[in-house]
Amino acid sequence: MSHSDEKVVAYTASGQPLTQSQYKKRVEEGILQCKEGKCTSLEQLSEELGYDDADLSDWQKQLIDKRLECIAQNPDRLRPIEELFDELDRNS
Prior knowledge:
The protein is mainly alpha-helical and about 90 residues long. It has four helices and two strands; from the N terminus they run ββαααα.
């Protein structure tokens, strides 16, 4: 495991830090769920998690829902998360 795998790169909805390896695992789990047809809308997800999405504007909600819909319809078009991290490493 490289040093960059242990760097905090994101936070959970509850504010818990996620290292690159933890984030990658969560993304991969999410992709698998979408491939299995288990994707939900932002509204459904917010209800399930007890999250108040009132802080998001309508355009943000629409954008997220559109992306979730695209992922559900085209799961094979998703790129591996490593490509994102490689790109971020190049630009940092």
